[in-house]
Amino acid sequence: MAETVGTATPTEVGFRGERAGSAPLTWGQRAIWHAIRRTAPNDHYFNIGRVLPLADRGRPASVAGTLDALARLMERHEALRTRLVLSAEDGESSQRLADTGSLPVTTVSATGLPEAAAEAAALLDRLSATRFDYAAEWPVRAALVTVGDRVTHAVLVLCHLAADGHAAEVLVRDLRLLVRRGSAGRPPAATPLDLARDQHAEGGRRRGAAALAHWEAGFRAAPPTMFPEPYAEPRTPRFWTGRIVSAALARAVGAVAAAHRVSGSTVLLTASAVLVAAGEGHRTAAVMPIVGNRTAGALRDLVSTLSQDGLFVLDLAEESGRADGEAAFTDLLPAAYRAALRAYRAAVYDPVEWDALGERLCAEYGREVHPYCCFNDMRLVERAVPEGPPPTPQELAAELTEARRRTSFGFPATQDRVACRYCLHITEEGDALAVSLTADTAYLPPEAIRAHLYAMEELIVASAAGSPPLLSDLGALPATAEPEGERP
Description:
CATH architecture of the largest domain: 2-Layer Sandwich
CATH class of the largest domain: Alpha Beta
Helix content: 25-40%
Number of domains: 2
CATH topology of the largest domain: Chloramphenicol Acetyltransferase
Shape: globular
Distance between the termini: 27 Å
Number of helices: 13
Structural class: alpha+beta
Largest sheet: 8 strands, mixed
């Protein structure tokens, strides 16, 4: 882990909000709290970090002005003033909102802009590397980097109980506006405490029960788990993250999505699902996509953790629409799009009731019922399809072949404990998609992680170029998709 080398100055920034109060955890908070407890003591894995550059444009940012903006940020968003109230072993944790307090902020000096960027990256690493004290610590850590008397970067690290990825972007946006303009406009229309009270009321419980009916039907249609048996000696650390960065994949996803009138996220979700199902010999795929749950207008700017798991279930034989066994990957996309929409609609529910459903099914089946297969498209918006007439299949194939020469792969991280067996994350890096797979090496050893990610690129690129692989060939794809020079 990198260390900062500039002079560090601690400051306490006071704030005063409009109200205090308490409430149960929202369903999104309950979901992430369950995941945190399963992952502890390695739960710093869930910390969310952002760096806000402030030297790029606009009026120069002073230290005093930026500290004042951080105070206004704390006052604007109640989630940042909320701590966990830990329960007794037999009770449920809750949350308590404070109206006043102070936030510790570290200011680090640098000699120039390149050094300031390095300091910001090092601060982000350091502040992210430690688990939060959920009951005693504010759910945000902040630091500033300066050159002379100007702030060049603000660093925020967020507790996942207070914010999800979308909420982190809202905070970065609001902090930028508060620094540059002194105001971020109207406050959010909803608050975490009010949302929690609504979800735990009678109407919220009815909506949650309807969502869980979808889950029960999906669990009964799918295999009990997508990874039933370990087949390798687990590595130490046990969980490895492989990461492929591919401009060809980004271009191909957009082309396939446009050609079949589905979202790019559906293309990636379906590719992930069918490759896992084919690799494990299942005819039905079950994947748990992370759903943002921000379709309601009042929730779009709410800083909270609203994301919950959905359940995407796809019968590869039934949904392909062909009886001759020669269905191709792209034949699945219309049905997959509908299945994804059903998963998104049923992703708001009480995790306590979800646990009870799982326990009931486990008792009935005599084994654990859980896909252990997760998908998280972390992009806030999808890349736009290039304007103008689409290229011919031959032109697109040539473009993708050239782009694939720039594809890179690595193993950037390992973890001792993650509460899943397969976690796929989608982000962007310049003109490329970055796809990270964190997997249990007892079920997917490092060489299988690498092969799976190259197979995903091959599957979608070939489909974009007009030659979608047959479903019957997907089981062999990981063994052939990786370039010869890259194979271990």
